[in-house]
Amino acid sequence: HRYETSLNYQKEILEKEKEAKGDEPFNYIMMTLFKLEDPGVVILPTYRLVKGLDKLSAEGFKNLLLPYFEISEVDWPDTSDKSKLEEVQNKILNGNHAFAAYVSQFTRFFIFNLKSENLL
């Protein structure tokens, strides 16, 4: 998706810079290609921080995503209890196209499992 983003950025700039010569930095992107099957490759999860959910209830949050995901929850009121992280990880690993989101205002994880491959 980063390549697509860079193409969109390039297009946006080209619409503004009508006199572009072709050697401007926005015309290039650094990429690294490697074989995913390489035993030395480790792909780590990408962390995202979402803000602005303070006016949303737990039920409202779930209802927004219910058309697309089966949703389960794991309460985590004591963040020093690391066993809950293992529980969440196991639920993700057992699901197809699954991810978890910890919502601090609700002190719980929501685990989302995609309902259908057709939604991708």
Automatic annotation (TrEMBL):
InterPro entries referenced in this protein's UniProt entry, alphabetically: UCP033563
Database matches in Pfam families: DUF1015 (PF06245)
Name the record gives this protein: Uncharacterized protein
Protein's organism: marine sediment metagenome
Organismal lineage: unclassified sequences, metagenomes, ecological metagenomes
